[in-house]
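Note to self: the last two entries modelled the partners one at a time, which told us nothing about the interface. This time every component goes in together.
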Amino acid sequence: MGTTDIGPPDYHTMLPGVIKKNYGKWKYHEIIRPGVLKHVSETGDVVYTVRVGSPRLVSVDFIRDICDVADKYCEGHLRFTSRYNIELMTGDIANVDKVIEAVKKLGLPVGGTGACISNIVHTQGWIHCHSAATDASGLVKSVMDELYDHFTNMKLPALLRISVACCINMCGAVHCSDLAIVGVHTKPPKVDNEKLAAVCEIPTTIRSCPTGAIRRHPDENIKSVVVREDLCMYCANCFTVCPAMPLADAMGDGVALYAGGKVSNARKPPMFSRMIVPYLPNNPPRWPEVVDIIKGVVNVYAEHARKYERMGEWIERIGWETFFRLTGIPFTEQHIDDFTHAVETYRTTTQFKW
Amino acid sequence: MDENTPLLDELEKGPWPSYVKEIKRAAKKNKAAKDLLGIQELSYKDKVTHWKHGGIVGVTGYGGGVIGRYSDVPEQFPNAASFHTIRVNHPGGWFYTTKALRQICDVWEKFGSGMTNFHGSTGDIILLGTTTENLQPCFDALAGIGFDLGGSGSALRTIAGCVGPARCEWSTIDTLNIVHDLTMEFQDEIHRPRWPYKFKIKASGCPNDCVAAIARADFTIIGTWRDSLRIDQNSVKEYAEKGFDIHKLIVDRCPTDALEWDEKKKELTLKPEDCVRCMHCINKMPKAIRPGVEGGATIMIGGKAPIIKGAYLSWVLIPFMKMEPPYHEMKELLRKIWDWWDEHGRTRERLAELVERVGLKRFLREMGIKPVPQMVFKPRANPYVFFDKK
Ligand code: HEM
Ligand code: HEM
Ligand code: HEM
Ligand code: HEM
Ligand code: SF4
Ligand code: SF4
Ligand code: SF4
Ligand code: SF4
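The predicted structure of the combined assembly is written out below.
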């Protein structure tokens, strides 16, 4: 047995020289053009950062290509952002264009700064997860192909953050994004009695269900459970605990869309994203229904929101009733909450718009 | 196997860089990556996932860090029949030398599929797809180049923070140092799951919260300041002279009406007692306005995604805590929270759900934390109150 618990490398060993020297001394920054940041230090030093989009799901050769660029122009250092963008830093403005040219040659976009749509935070989907109700990488590719110009320019009222989660576990911060795409099941679990008896604990399985939809099998000779379908909200909690209860269903699975969340505290406090479309079918490889609605909402927002207004701030100002009118998205019974804190969302005032 | 992938080929078109091209690149050198492509195409055709629940796999001495993954079509794609993921703890701030990255690439080319995520949503480097036999040698090779596993299962997950003082003028705390220090202190908690469920810690240097700590961490550290923000009137004038509408875009947008604009003198003044440190004015006038100098953090708890009882945003626990190494106060608080949660939490019950179940009042009592109005938006409206029955 080798050593354990050595932890990650100390970040000091990874910092570029100019960062090490000016650590904690940064004075201000500006975005000199889309995708290029200039940070100025109290010491007078300057560092330029070129921000580059990445598909995130990449081969080792992709990483090596980026390393080649960093070796050539950035003294062998680089970093990644929390939204998977690659940042190439240099103290020399003359290198900025060279970096941009080199990454463009690799087919990568420069942008993701300011009032733009940055890279989509996303999860694994059909690439690697047993729980996925939709794919993640393919949805991201399909949406970003259409919104590409919003990555490379900064023409929106404010920054707009999109996330994709391929099931309601929501491994990314989907519940607080300007626009969110979430994989959903719409059919209850299909219980495999034989497998359940072999691999699952019945008490744990029963207990896993937040709505109490799972009961012991009425036939004592069958060591399994039954699902009361009228109580099932397709959350897949039971499946996480018990693999004999898969929910995946080619016809039933699809995606829901949410809007208006944010995590930043700027102006209004952080907000949850709220449902705008309860269900769209999975239509790989390009999910045209999803892409259309996302594009439509981005356009309506770009046209109507005031400068600096995030999606959620805009919707709060105009009201959700106006949002549904402007976007033409139908309001359905699924939009009305019936889970734990539902009543808080009911309108307890006579104030509303038509 | 069958290399005919018409559906995925569609995703090679278009301007955004294509992950399908990346899998194809890896597939040229690696059979597992080739089968991954086939499995993905099959999912596109069938519209369901072809991955099964993980079995228990791992490396010696660890209870997590590896996610077991098996395909449900092993006969068709034997080279990706087992396709386990390794989570590798990233260095703080996600800074790298190219040397370190190239070493990771070499290890993964040797022992895995060659496909990666830079990075996973929690922050780890994700190495996607290897066999059970290769796990231990791959781990040993990673240890050899100075990398270790991240968290998985009912453990402390890999801790992440924003770029902070390394390249952001707004950070009022040393996020990289906090992340590294806590990560090293809590190696056992990260590597050996023993809690009711997962626990996440994230640190953002200021209320802009670039790592979404408020939404995604059970324990949220957000930089803030006790004194008032700093305004450089000369730079303010420069903004005004360039035609920037300070009244409309800054003063009117301040959520608490804390700023005043004197159009004649071109002077921006702050009523510090009214400022809630939202960052708006600082974000939009970075050359003129800066956070205060008396830095520290607001500690919040509870943030999580919907599973099980719904999504939560973190709420204020400690309005202001000084953040100086070795962060004794914060570490003690963390240990206290963990012990309490471990004792009272049900399986798969996150901290927020437990606190909601038993009440914030009891939690505060048992943590020995005094209630303050900063913890709530507003006091209760109902009359159903418990008093001590002593
Ligand atoms: C009559 C037999 C058993 C009973 C009544 C029983 C009961 C329980 C209960 C009540 C829980 C907690 C569930 C919860 O809080 O939601 C639990 C958890 C667990 N039990 Fe058992 N158990 C039994 C046998 C076993 C066996 C034979 C194994 C393993 C071979 C096992 C492995 C586990 C594991 C791994 C958990 C944790 C599950 C999780 O973290 O989600 N149990 N068991
Ligand atoms: C054949 C024997 C047993 C049966 C049929 C059984 C059944 C159950 C059932 C139906 C529940 C309730 C699950 C729910 O809340 O929905 C439960 C809970 C529980 N059982 Fe058992 N049980 C058995 C034996 C045991 C044993 C031997 C232990 C401990 C050594 C145990 C410990 C528990 C605990 C701690 C809970 C509560 C879990 C929680 O609230 O988190 N059980 N059991
Ligand atoms: C010792 C006696 C009994 C016990 C401990 C018992 C316990 C329970 C429990 C725990 C449930 C599940 C409740 C829930 O999860 O919401 C239930 C459901 C039910 N019980 Fe009983 N029960 C008993 C006797 C009876 C009798 C005598 C009847 C009818 C004459 C009955 C009719 C039902 C029905 C219809 C349900 C289903 C209700 C639903 O699905 O919402 N039970 N029982
Ligand atoms: C073997 C004995 C018993 C078992 C295993 C049992 C189990 C349960 C369970 C699992 C529930 C459902 C809890 C829930 O869905 O949240 C329940 C509900 C309930 N039980 Fe029992 N129970 C037993 C005996 C009793 C007895 C003896 C009484 C009354 C004297 C009783 C009264 C109730 C009531 C009133 C509820 C409904 C609570 C509510 O919905 O607010 N149970 N029981
Ligand atoms: S969001 Fe759900 S399906 Fe997607 S990776 Fe996470 S657990 Fe898996
Ligand atoms: S999917 Fe969710 S609601 Fe439906 S049975 Fe399973 S745990 Fe219960
Ligand atoms: S959270 Fe604040 S300090 Fe950290 S990188 Fe973002 S803006 Fe800078
Ligand atoms: S930081 Fe926010 S609250 Fe404070 S003065 Fe600026 S805009 Fe107003």
